[in-house]
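Example record

Each entry pairs one chain with its bound ligand, pyridoxal-5'-phosphate.
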Amino acid sequence: MNVDHTIHKTEFKKAVIYNLKISYRRTIEDATAAQMYQAVALAVKDMIIDRWIATHKEYEKQDAKVVYYMSMEFLTGRFLGNNIISLCEQEEIREALAEMGFDLNTIENQERDPALGNGGLGRLAACFLDSLATLGYPAYGCGIRYRYGMFKQKIEDGYQIEVPDEWLKDGYPFEIRRPEYATEVKFGGYVDTEWDGHRNHFVQKGYQSVLAVPYDIPIVGYGNNVVNSLRIWDAQPVNTFNLKEFDKGDYQKAVEQENLAKTIVEVLYPNDNHYAGKELRLRQQYFFISASVQRAVKKYLENHDDIHKFYEKAVFQMNDTHPTVAVAELMRILLDEQNLEWDEAWEITTKTCAYTNHTIMSEALEKWPIELFSRLLPRIYQIVEEINRRFVEEIKKAYPGDNEKIRKMAIIYDGQVRMAHLAIVGSFSVNGVARLHTEILKNEELKDFYQMMPAKFNNKTNGITQRRFLLHGNPLLASWVTDKIGNEWITDLSHIKKLAIYADDEKCQREFMNIKYQNKIRLAKYIKEHNGIDVDPRSIFDVQVKRLHEYKRQLMNILHVMYLYNQLKDNPNMDIVPRTFIFGAKAAAGYTRAKLTIKLINAVADVINNDRSINGKIKVVFIEDYCVSNAEMIFAAADVSEQISTASKEASGTGNMKFMLNGALTIGTMDGANVEMAEEVGAENMFIFGASSDEIINWENQGGYNPMEIFNSDQEIRRVLMQLINGSYSPQNPELFRDIYNSLLNTQSSDRADTYFILKDFRSYAEAEDRIDKAYRDEKWWARTAILNTASSGKFSSDRTIEEYVRDIWHLDKIKVEL
Ligand SMILES: *Cc1c(COP(=O)(O)O)cnc(C)c1O
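C-alpha cells for the complex follow.
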C-alpha cells in the first residue's frame, strides 16, 4: 500500500479530536483512556467503512457465491489492534497517538473483549472469518448478539466466581445496527393446513414471535481492502403486534412477547463440549438460524429469479450441531414460502448445507425431547418427521430387515430428535477437524453413516490465524521472523519453514531465546500485578491454558505437581530446573468437579508458593479469567505447552497450534492435531507420552480398567492420592477434595473410575515431564527445537484450512477490491 503517511497521520489526529468532541464534549487534554479508545475506534471504523462498502459492491458485481458460517459462538477477542494491523496502519497510528500523549497498547487494553464464545469452537469461527477476509472470499459469520457473553472469572479464596460480562455497557464502536434487515421469527402455536384448490398450505398459527435485528461487525482482511461481515442478531419485541394485541386488551400476550425477546439473547450458555438440553438454548438456535436463512434467501431473490439454483450462490457451513435446524428451516422456506415440491426443496437444501463435527463425546451430543421440540417449533418438527420418514425408508432399502440400523441411525428415535443425524442426512459434506478425529468418526462413532454415504465424509484439520497469534500477540518474534525471511508469512504461513535454516545458528538461537525471555518478563509482570506472585522469568514456563474439562486432564497436571513437590520435600537438594506451572481455565458454571479442580490447583499453589524450604524451585500460578486478550500474551511467553488430553477425546485442539507457532515445545498425547504436529516437526522435537487412541478405545470397549491396581502397586501415586483426602491441601476441611479422589478410584458415582485414564497415563506423563527437565539444560538443543517448532507450524494456519474448505466444500471465487 502506498500512502502518504504525513497527511495520513494529520487526518487521523483530526478525526480522533473530532470524535472526542462530538461523543464526549472533551478535548485531548481531558480525555480519559476509555474515551480515547472510543474515539480511536471510531476513527479506525471510518477507515474501514469505504472498504466495507466497496467489498459488498464487488460481491454484487461479480454475483459471487457466499459462505454463511453459522455458529452459536464467535470468540473474536478485541478488534481495535487487529483492525489497525489489517489496515497496515500500525506504525502511523502508534506515532500519531504518541504525539497526542497516548500509548496505543494502553488504548487497545481499554476495549472489552467481545467474548461471544466458550473456547476452541468459538475461537475457530473467529480465526476462519479472519482468514476468509484475508484470502478475499465472500463470507458472512452468522451468530447471536448475546447481551452477556462468556462470564468473567474471578478467583476468590481459590474458588471460581462468575461475574457477568457487560461487553455492551459503554457501546461497542465497531458494530452497525441494520434495522432494514429485521426479520420476524416465530415460536410455538400450531400448524393449520389450508387448501387452495391445488395443494395444501401449512400455516403456523397462534404463535409468539420476536423481531430479529442484525448488527454487523466488520472483519478486515489483511492489506487487501476486503471487509466481510460478522452478522449477529439481537431480539426485539414485534412492536406492531405488540400494539395491536394491546388494543385488543391482550396485555398478557404483549408483555410475554416483550419478555421473550429480552430473554432469548440474554446470555451465552457457558458449557463447552456439553449439552444442557435447555428450552431457551433451542430457542436461541432457531432464532438466529431462522433469521439468517430467511435473510440469505431474500438476498438471493433480490438478484435471481430461479430458487432452484440457490446453492450455486450460497453455502451454509454449520459449526457443530448447534445450527442444524438450518436444514429444516431452509426446507420450510422452500416448501411453504416458495411453494416447491418436497424433492426439489430437498435437493436444494442438501446441496446448500454442510456440517462440521467437533466432538465424539456422548455428553456433547444434542438430542432434543420430541415434546419440547414439537411444542417450540411445530412446523419445523413436521418437516423433521418427514425427513426422518424418508431416511428410514432409505435405510430399509439399503439394509433390508436390519432393524438395528434403524435404531442406530434414525433421526427421531426413542422420543428424541438427534441433531447430529439430521445434520449428516441434510448435508452434502460432513467433516471432522483433524485427521485422527475424522478417522474415528468414520471407523467408530459415525461408522454406519460412513458406510452408507462415504462420499460426504472429509477432513479439514483446524488452524489458527498467525495475524492475531504471532503478528499481534508477539510483536518481538514477528519482527524477528520478518527480518530473517521477509513478510510473506503474514499472508502465507508456509513461508515460515524458511526459518529452519537458522535453527542451528547460535546467534539466531540467542536472539530467539532472548525474545522468549522478554515475553516471559512481560508475563511475569502481569502475574505479579494480578496474582501478587513473584515468578522467575528464567524458570521454565510450563503452561496449560484451555477450558477446564476432565478429558483435558488439568487434574493429571496438578497431581504431577503434587508428586514433584513430594520429591522436593523428601530431597530439598534435588537437582531440577526451576519450573513455573501456569494454569488458566474457566469451568462451566454448573460443572462442580471442574470447579473443584480449580480450587485444588489454587490450594496446591498456596502451599507450594509459600514453602520457603524448596527455594522457589517450583511455583504454581492460576491466571484468572483466561480469554483471548491474555491468551495472546501467554502463548508468546510459554516454553512448554501442555496438550495432555486422553487420546481420542480432543477432536483437534487449536491452543496446541498457537503455542507451536510461538516456539513452545509440546508435551502431549497422540491426540487431535498433536498427531499432525508431530508429523510436521518430528516426534523427537516434542515430548510425547501416554496411551494411544486405539488403546483407549479398546479399554473403553472392555468397560475400562481397574485403577486400584495402580493405587496398590505405586507408592508415590498412592501418596499423592491420599493427600487429596488427608488435608494436606485443605487442612480446614480434609474432605474437600474427596470427590476428586473418588472420581479416580471409586465407582460410587455412575461413571467408571478414572474415566479419563489419568492414573493409567501418570507414569508415562511424569517421565515425559522429566525429559523436559533434562532437555532444558541443553540450551542449544532447546533453542534449536523451539525455532524448529515455529518453523514447522506452517500447516496450522487457518488460511490453509480455509483454502481446503473452499476447494473441497464451498467452491468460492476470490474477489478483488480496488479503492
Ligand atoms: C485457542 C483458544 C482456546 C482453545 O484452546 P484448546 O487448547 O484448543 O482447548 C480456548 N480459549 C481461548 C481464549 C483460546 O484462544
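The pocket of pyridoxal-5'-phosphate is lined by residues 119-120, 123, 546-547, 627-628, 631, 653-655, 658 (CB under 6 Å).
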